[in-house]
Amino acid sequence: MTLLEVKSLNTYYGESHILRDVDLNVKSGEMVCLIGRNGVGKTTLLKSLIGLLKQKKGDIYLIGENINRKAPHQRARKGMAYVPQGREIIPYLSVEENLMLGMESLPGGLSKNKKIDPFIYDLFPILKDFLDRKGGDLSGGQQQQLAIARALLGKPQLLLLDEPTEGIQPNIVLDIENAINKIIRDTGIGVLLVEQHLHFVRQANRYYAMQRGGIVASGNTSELSQAVIDKFLSV
Amino acid sequence: MELFVDILFNGISFGSVYLIAALGLAIVFGLMGVINLAHGELIMVGAYSTFVTQLLFKEPFLKPFFGSYIIVSIFVAFIFSATVGILLERLIIKRLYGNPLETLLGTWGVSLFLQQFVRSFSLSFGTSVIISIISGVSLKNIFPKSIKERFNEKYIRLSNWIIPIFIGILSNNFLATNIPRIRRPDSRLVDVTSPKWMRGPFEIYGESFPKTRLVIIAITVISVIAVLIFLNLTEWGIRIRAVTQNRSMSECLGISTKKVDTITFGIGSGLAGVAGVAVSLLGSVGPDVGQLYIVPCFMVVVLGGVGNILGTVLASFGIGILTDIFASGRLLTLFPNAPSFVFNTLNFFSTSSMAVVLIFSLIVIFLQFKPQGLFPQKGRTVE
């Protein structure tokens, strides 16, 4: 089933044209990776998908429904979850409250869903020890785990991940990779991932390569050649 | 000992007026970052609605319950001020988020508008305008579904307008015929008579405290506790804190930030209304009663540390106690042998208005050294 379909998306930052005719789709149960050097518009694309930036032209379909005019909170309630670059944990809320906010996008919102589903403690055991700490006091890696857990608690159909391993110590990178793989296997959600880590990129099913705001190459990651890697990954 | 209790009581009772007046602003300015210069006028709305409630309780059918009108008027004032505040947010402030200078000018305009509104229109008219707005908003939600489905949507929408207007006209007629005092526009000061149980002093251990002051302290304490419970223990509290700390991420998590803004602003404005009840108990109420309180409110919130409710509490009690110490000239009686220039200086500041001048100058100097206030935000996130 096609979860996300993007047709000739164009986004501007003020006057400057960032995204040029982006076409892309994500099916359920697959991990799709977006690669490209810094400043080619990967983050802008994710922000346009969740609705933080308004597109000028083009259509976005989520599970067959056109969501062009929906606000971010409506898109979240329709099954899209977003883990931004830099985590964006709510700093002065406790870890528990941060996790509870993840359930705001469930039907009925926070008022009807108060119990944190323990499956996230299986994925990220460390969160259980920190429930009473302020979210802003966690380390970068812990915040990343919290951000992913928070997104998963909303039971999304589509998970948008923006550089989840950026600036994080290697053992936590592995934890995060395993957790995302497990979630895809268990629940069959789709994941759209922006990533620079070659090891993580290799685990995706398909890739899209971006250059100057447009998609210039795509295919299965198994066919990802050294030439493409050299061209689009900044490692 | 007696002196100490005296200072403490007077200081707390001064401070609690500041606190109740600033509590709403601590939410609107402290949490949302909106500079609302119309906050004083929301206090005025609360004070006037206390006055109207009180007159209503003098009518024959409510006369036996006159003693309890204060409690009723707290709710009335909260709802009325919240309604005006939500209207203000929806019509003006919503469009100005992120533009502090424009917000400042816009809300100042609203403050002038509200002052003039009270002068130019009768209280019965003002009250019925607010009543019709409240009924207009709530009607949509309380219409039974069976009626909604039976008629064309057009008629339902039309009746959503007609019925509130009708309710407004009826309530205007009712108030104007029954309470002649509020029939005509009147910009003179009005006075609220407190019920019998609130008059006179209250005695403990030979010390006597005016009961009005005790009631104000009680209202303040209950409001602060209610606000803390609301912000920290309810789901709306979590939403509000999330939105004030990271607006765009909260939106991405599925929180309707517009709704949260409206509710936050409504609660802050409602608290201004509760402050209006306290203000009306202290003295006469006029169209510019809010102007007295707006500057101290901002001072208290900034001194306490923006976004910190407990800081606001401590700051207002601190200001209250210091004001009392200087204004009553207690230092003069304590240190009668102080050098003459100190004595003269203290003597100069020992009137209530000069004490306020002194305290606020001290706050300004203090903020030069600690611009974040008494309790700045701490932790890894600040960096």
Automatic annotation (TrEMBL), chain A:
Keywords for this protein: Amino-acid transport, ATP-binding, Nucleotide-binding, Transport
Pfam family, one: ABC_tran
Stretches that traverse the bilayer: none
Keyword Nucleotide-binding: yes
PANTHER family, alphabetized: HIGH-AFFINITY BRANCHED-CHAIN AMINO ACID TRANSPORT ATP-BINDING PROTEIN (PTHR43820:SF5), HIGH-AFFINITY BRANCHED-CHAIN AMINO ACID TRANSPORT ATP-BINDING PROTEIN LIVF (PTHR43820)
NCBIfam families the UniProt entry points to: urea_trans_UrtE
Protein name: Urea ABC transporter
Protein's organism: Prochlorococcus marinus str. MIT 9116
UniProtKB/TrEMBL annotation, chain B:
BP-aspect Gene Ontology terms: amino acid transport
Highest taxon of source: Bacteria
Ribonucleoprotein keyword on record: no
Entry's transmembrane regions: 12-35, 69-88, 124-143, 155-175, 214-233, 263-285, 291-310, 317-336, 348-369
InterPro entries: ABC_transp_permease, BCAA_transport_permease
GO molecular function, one term: transmembrane transporter activity
GO cellular component: a single term: plasma membrane
Topology within the bilayer: Multi-pass membrane protein
Principal location listed in the UniProt entry: membrane
Keywords on record: Amino-acid transport, Cell membrane, Membrane, Transmembrane, Transmembrane helix, Transport
A Pfam family annotated for this UniProt entry: BPD_transp_2
Subcellular location: Cell membrane
Family: Belongs to the binding-protein-dependent transport system permease family. LivHM subfamily.
Name the UniProt record assigns to this protein: Urea ABC transporter
Species in which this protein is naturally found: Prochlorococcus marinus str. MIT 9116
